[in-house]
Amino acid sequence: MTRSRCYREGVLTDEGFSLADVSEHLEDESAVVWVDLCAPKPEELQVLADELQLHTLAVEAAASGRQRPKFDRFPGHDFLTAYVVRLDVTTGELVTGEIAAFITSNALVTVRKDDEFQVDGLVARWDDKADINKHGVGALVHGLLDFIVDGHFEAVESLDDQIELLEDLLFDTRPHDRDVERRSFELRKSLVLLRRVVLPMREVVNSMMRRDVGLVPEQLMPHFQDVYDHVLRATEWTESLRDLVTTILETNLTIQGNRLNIITKKVTSWAAIIAVPTAITGFYGQNVPYPGFAHESGFIVSSVLIALMSGTLYLTFKRKDWL
């Protein structure tokens, strides 16, 4: 699938044209072209590389995928890789979608591996902020970064909500040790993956904003600064959630230990109570003469001792909150 758009002076003038027509549109110096390729074939990438004179290493990186988020500079163009993310709340798994972008002075080419990256949402973002499209390719790059970083924020918020549910599960009156441990592991795994995606974006956005790069015009600098602030907030939030999940795991272990201590204390207390009648009946069960042997008085004395001493132990343990 291929999608394309052409802007002139910030106004959408053409869309849906083929790769072979890209160079024709770029002959107009006022034109800014966007081309999107989803799971492209090698020959399609090669056509685009020939049209825009893209560097071989950048084309190979876009074709192979599995790159870390980065911003590289090549003669004649820049190269960006980033990831969109979303949290599957059912499994706790973080789903990622890689996108690569070639950035020239008047063209933006995005390459996706699959439909995980919702390109319709990106187009809607550009249409919503049509007033800044007149600032050239930098405006399209800003919309792309803004769309990606907003997705990071939504994923972090979803993880935060899931961790709050995990906290409620942790302090439920009924034990949920296995569920808490399994869910904690799933969320921690997702947070580690999210950190790998979010953390490098600070360097990516910061590199783009450098004046010597020349990608961001002065009019767009506040917009990129806003994206950078969002990246910092998402990074800090991710780090705090990782610490929170670790704390939940440690708290769960502490609660299990406390619960075990309470159970041990109760079992020990009942064992001490049961030991009293066992000792008394064992003593009176001796086959030797003793005061009250073979008489009704012996039975009465032993019963009174059992009731009195067992009751005393029960009240003592109850007062100490051992039962």
Automatic annotation (TrEMBL):
<keyword id="KW-1003">Cell membrane</keyword>
<dbReference type="InterPro" id="IPR002523">
    <property type="entry name" value="MgTranspt_CorA/ZnTranspt_ZntB"/>
</dbReference>
<dbReference type="InterPro" id="IPR045863">
    <property type="entry name" value="CorA_TM1_TM2"/>
</dbReference>
<comment type="similarity">
    <text>Belongs to the CorA metal ion transporter (MIT) (TC 1.A.35) family.</text>
</comment>
<keyword id="KW-1133">Transmembrane helix</keyword>
<dbReference type="InterPro" id="IPR045861">
    <property type="entry name" value="CorA_cytoplasmic_dom"/>
</dbReference>
<feature type="transmembrane region" description="Helical">
    <location>
        <begin position="267"/>
        <end position="285"/>
    </location>
</feature>
<feature type="transmembrane region" description="Helical">
    <location>
        <begin position="297"/>
        <end position="317"/>
    </location>
</feature>
<keyword id="KW-0812">Transmembrane</keyword>
<keyword id="KW-0813">Transport</keyword>
<dbReference type="Pfam" id="PF01544">
    <property type="entry name" value="CorA"/>
</dbReference>
<protein>
    <submittedName>
        <fullName>Magnesium transporter</fullName>
    </submittedName>
</protein>
<keyword id="KW-0472">Membrane</keyword>
